[in-house]
Every structure is written in structure tokens, then in C-alpha cells.
Design brief:
Blueprint (H helix, E strand, L loop, with lengths): L1 E3 L21 E3 L21 E3 L21 E3 L21 E3 L10 H4 L7 E3 L9 H4 L8 E3 L9 H9 L6 E3 L21 E3 L21 E3 L19 E3 L1 E3 L21 E5 L7 H6 L10 E5 L10 H5 L10 E5 L8 H4 L3 E5 L13 E8 L13 E8 L2 H6 L4 E2 L5 E2 L3 H4 L2 E9 L14 E2 L3 E5 L19 E5 L18 E5 L19 E5 L2 H8 L1 H6 L5 E5 L5
Parallel strand pairs: 1-2, 2-3, 3-4, 4-5, 5-6, 6-7, 7-8, 8-9, 9-10, 10-11, 12-13, 13-14, 14-15, 15-16, 16-17, 17-18, 18-21, 21-22, 21-23, 23-24, 24-25, 25-26, 26-27
Antiparallel strand pairs: 19-20
């Protein structure tokens, strides 16, 4: 009755005797990529209800006998790139409820059979970018609850298509994301009284959504990420509870005792941005959304408006917003506390931005995939330090550079160093430093790094270092220097004997490369952009000989600053 052959990638064909499985109800052949054709006996599986052929190398041949499966309710054809058209005989599948055609990139036409499959409730056409004549195809789908048209709308069919979608009265979930030809939604969309999820992500030319969408009682989630031209987002009516995701704006009305943050309670998105946190009226509101239980959440951004008045202390509020273990990336902006809750430092990837008063980061994890610190001028990095950071970014946060690894003094005058990690090295694969007013010589951080492969320095004016720092840079294979006000490359570049790629961008004061550049024998690629005098130097016949050992050389115009 139930047979799962998914991921059996070496199966090329099914035997003719397969049709003798008279009681088979559920068959999964997904990712059996070598199966290109089904035996004729396949049409004898009269009791088959569920058939999954996703990611098979299917052509129309695999569909020849499908029409005989008159009890079929679920059909998965996702990723079957060989299918160009669904045959008219598909119209005999009267009981079909679920049809997944996502990423059938060759599919051009579905209209031949659509008129008669009136019980269909789920239709996924995501990524079917060649498909045409959708408006007429949708007319008969009066039972449709889920419709996914991600990235598959053509120019010129927007108006008629939107009108037909508006007539799908049972629709609950509609995905129109990544469609450039959607400019607006008609007022008739407000007639979709059962719609609970509308995804318009990256419809980058959409300008208008009906204001009355905010009065739709059933609408719970509206995805608007990447809709940069949208003039105004619909505001929820007091009688409704829909939320706009992934960017959720915390609002509070005059005289109201609480904000709308509680509307996030029943959501479970993969990405969530909560902005205007200064409008939260109590810590209990934050606790009520049960952020820790949102097990699908992978990326979280929490933001306060810099300088705005608060109802709740930032740290008290943040202590109630502990994310789930599923989280991969955390970003916090505009926080005005002097310290952060311990849980922040224990995340895998952390970005801290515009924290003018932050002085310490406690409870740091031993390893990060990424640690990014931007405009945190008072933050000092003291023990304990992470043992490994894959990508470390520091911009406009000079105290981080100068204090990394320094020991604090106890009341007795002795230095406190309670762990070997406080005095040891931090392994970092990549380091980006931007807008530092400190001489590179004072970047204490460099003396505590090992294994550095990529170094990116942006908008810094003094790149001189002492000899004791150079060994910590010796492992660099990729160096980028961008928009730095310097007249020549720093001398330590010639000590990077393993350097394979060098990028110089927007450093207009640099007029030549140092003598002995040919000693960097492992240098394979040189990119120069926005350095006109340096370009001329590189193009002279004499200097071309000095650069002959470099395989790829790219010289281009002014940098975009």
C-alpha cells in the first residue's frame, strides 16, 4: 500500500510487473533522476492516491498513462525540467487536490486540462518562468486554497491575472513574490475574505496595495521584503491582527496600554525584523510573543530608533527576547544600554550596530561564524575572547581595535585573566576594518589573531605597523585596500609572501606599486579600480615587465564612493 523509493538514484526503469501492485495507495519516486519513462502497466494502479515524481528527469513520456489514475489526489512534479506541457488527458484527474509543478523550468502551457480539475486546492507554479496565458487557466479553480506564482508572471498579463485571482474566493495563501511586472494590486483583492498569507517579497516595482487590505479579518501575514517602491504599507485596523513580515513595525496608538507586538505571537517565520522597539510598553509584551518557541526562525533583527524615548529599558526588554536554538544570525541596532544580556554573545552570528553607550559584551561564545561591530565607540573587548571567528568586521569602533585582549584590573591591583582564551589567540579567517581613526600600529587586535586569510581595510589613513605585528599578517592570501587616504602601499605588504590576490580601490593618492613587487611570486590576481595615477604606472612598458608574473590584471575606472 505504501512504497518509498525516493533518492534511489541508480534506478533507470520500473519493471512491467509494477502494475500488479493493485493495492498501492502511496508511491514516492522523488529524486530518482534516471527514470525517464514509466511502464505501460503503471496505468493499472487504480487505487493510487499519492504520487511524487519530484526531481525526476521526466519528459512528457512519464505522463503518458497518468490519466488512468483516476483516484489520484496528490501529484508532485517539482523540478521535472523535461516537462514542456501537461497533456489534455490530465483533465480526467477529477479528484486531484494537490499539484506541485514548481521549478518545471521548461513548462510552457497548463491551460489544456485546467478547465476540468475543479477540486484542486493546492497549485505551485513557483519558478515556471516560461509559462504563459495564466489568466484564462485560473478561471475554473474555485476550490483553490494555495497558489504560488513566484517569479513566473509575464509582461502584459498583470491586470487580467489580478482580476481572476481576486475571484478565487477560497484562497488562503497567495505567493506573488519576485515578479517585476506587478505595479499594484486592485481593490478587488479585498474580496479575498479567507486569505491569511500574502507574499509580495521582492516585487520591486510594486507601488500600491489597497488600504482596505488592513481591514481583512482573515489576513495574518503580509510579506513585503524588497518592495522598495511601495509608497505606504497597509496599516492593520484595530479589529484585525495581520502582521507585515519579515519587517514588523511596533506601533502604539494614543491612549493604548500596549503595543501591537503581541500580534507576533502566532507567527513562525524564517526571518524576522522587529523595528521601532521603543514603542513596546512593557517587558511582558515581549515575553508574550514566545520568541524562543519560533523554531523556524533563522535570522532575527531587533532595532530601536536612535535617540527615541523608551517606555521600557532596552536591556530589560532584550532579556525577554531570547531567540530559539534554530537561529543562525542575529542583528541588533540602536540599543542604548551599556551592556547586553548574556544570550546575545552566545549566538553563532552577531551584528551590533549604532550602540553609542555599549561598553562590554559579556558571555561571549567560543566561536562565531561572523561577528560584526559597527559604530560602537565605547565598546571594549576584554577577556574572555572568542577562540575562533570566521568573519570579523569592525567599523567606526576604535576601542574594539585597541582593547582586544587587554586584561582588566581587580580591586587588589592584579590583572584578571580567568581563562587561557583571555591571553591566547583568536583564529580569524577574514577581517574587515573600516573608518578607523587609529594608526594601524595601535590595533591591538592584530597581535591576538592567527590564521588570517582575508584582510579588508577601508577608509583608514595610517597603515603603518611595527615589526612584531607583521608575523600575524603573514598568512594573508587576499588583501583589499579601499578608499584609504595614503600615498603608497604600506611596507608590510611586501612581507605577505603567500599573497595571491591584491585589490586596490579608490586610493587616488597611490601612484605606484613598491619596488620588488615581483618578489610576491604567488600573486595571481591584481585588481585596481579608481586609482588613475596607479593605472598609468601599471600600463607603462617598463612596469609591465615588473608585473609579468601576475596572471590576471584588471585595471578599471573611478571607484563608486
Amino acid at each position: 500500500m505504501y512504497l518509498d523509493l525516493s533518492l534511489c538514484r541508480r534506478i533507470k526503469e520500473l519493471p512491467e510487473s509494477f502494475g500488479k501492485l493493485k493495492k498501492l495507495v502511496h508511491l514516492d519516486l522523488s529524486s530518482c533522476r534516471r527514470i525517464k519513462e514509466l511502464p505501460e502497466s503503471f496505468g493499472k494502479l487504480k487505487k493510487l492516491v499519492h504520487l511524487d515524481l519530484s526531481n525526476c528527469s521526466a519528459s512528457e513520456n512519464i505522463l503518458k498513462f497518468m490519466w488512468r489514475l483516476t483516484d489520484l489526489q496528490y501529484l508532485g512534479l517539482s523540478g521535472c525540467e523535461g516537462i514542456k506541457e501537461l497533456p489534455e488527458s490530465f483533465g480526467r484527474l477529477k479528484k486531484l487536490v494537490h499539484l506541485d509543478l514548481s521549478n518545471c523550468s521548461a513548462l510552457e502551457n497548463i491551460s489544456k486540462f485546467m478547465w476540468s480539475v475543479t477540486d484542486l486546492q493546492y497549485l505551485n507554479l513557483s519558478g515556471c518562468y516560461r509559462i504563459g496565458w495564466l489568466p484564462e487557466s485560473l478561471d475554473g479553480f474555485t476550490s483553490l486554497k494555495y497558489l504560488n506564482l513566484h517569479g513566473c508572471l509575464r509582461y502584459g498579463e498583470n491586470d487580467s491575472l489580478m482580476d481572476r485571482i481576486s475571484a478565487l474566493s477560497n484562497l488562503e495563501h497567495l505567493d506573488l513574490s519576485w515578479n517585476d511586472y506587478i505595479i499594484s494590486l486592485p481593490e478587488s483583492f479585498c474580496n479575498l475574505r479567507k486569505l491569511h498569507t500574502l507574499d509580495l517579497s521582492y516585487c520591486k516595482y510594486i507601488k500600491k496595495i489597497p488600504e482596505n487590505m488592513g481591514r481583512n479579518d482573515s489576513l495574518k501575514t503580509l510579506y513585503l521584503k524588497g518592495c522598495h517602491r511601495l509608497r505606504e504599507e497597509p496599516v492593520p485596523h484595530p479589529s484585525t491582527s495581520f502582521v507585515s513580515l519579515p519587517r514588523f513595525q511596533v506601533r502604539v496608538g494614543d491612549g493604548e496600554s500596549s503595543s501591537n507586538l503581541v500580534c507576533l505571537k502566532d507567527t513562525n517565520p524564517q526571518r524576522l525584523e522587529i523595528v521601532w522597539l521603543e514603542n513596546v510598553k512593557s517587558a511582558e509584551e515581549a515575553q508574550s510573543i514566545k520568541l524562543m518557541e519560533k523554531n523556524k526562525l533563522q535570522a532575527l533583527e531587533l532595532s530601536w530608533t536612535v535617540g527615541a524615548e523608551r517606555f521600557v529599558d532596552d536591556k530589560v526588554l532584550l532579556e525577554k527576547l531570547v531567540p530559539p536554538k534554530s537561529l543562525h544570525g542575529l542583528a541588533i541596532m540602536g540599543y542604548n544600554g551599556v551592556s547586553l544580556p548574556t544570550w546575545v554573545g552566545q549566538q553563532n552570528s552577531v551584528t551590533l550596530t549604532s550602540m553609542e553607550h555599549l561598553q562590554e559584551l559579556s558571555g561571549m561564545s567560543t566561536a562565531y561564524s561572523e561577528l560584526s561591530i559597527n559604530y560602537c565607540p565605547k565598546l571594549r573587548m576584554r577577556p574572555l575572547l572568542p577562540r575562533a571567528v570566521r568573519s570579523l568586521r569592525i567599523r567606526r569602533s576604535d576601542n574594539v581595535l585597541s582593547s582586544w585582549g587587554e586584561c582588566t584590573m581587580s580591586s587588589t591591583g592584579a590583572s584578571s585573566s580567568s581563562s587561557s582564551s583571555s591571553s591566547g589567540l583568536t583564529t580569524a579567517v577574514g577581517l574587515m576594518v573600516g573608518y578607523s581613526e587609529l594608526p594601524m600600529q595601535q590595533w591591538r587586535l592584530l597581535r591576538h589573531l592567527s590564521g588570517l586569510d582575508y584582510l579588508n581595510i577601508e577608509s583608514c589613513s595610517d597603515l603603518t605597523v611595527s615589526p612584531d605585528i607583521i608575523p600575524h599578517l603573514s598568512s594573508v592570501t587576499h588583501l583589499k585596500i579601499r578608499t584609504c587616504n595614503i600615498s603608497s602601499l604600506p611596507h608590510w605588504v611586501m612581507d605577505l609572501t603567500g599573497l595571491q590576490k591584491l585589490e586596490i580601490e579608490g586610493c587616488r593618492g597611490i601612484r605606484s606599486l613598491p619596488e620588488g613587487i615581483q618578489k610576491l611570486t604567488k600573486l595571481q590576481r591584481l585588481e585596481i579600480d579608481g586609482c588613475p595615477d596607479l593605472n598609468k604606472w601599471c600600463e607603462s612598458e617598463e612596469n609591465k615587465m615588473k608585473l609579468a608574473h601576475i596572471k590576471d590584471k584588471v585595471l578599471s575606472g573611478p571607484a563608486t564612493l
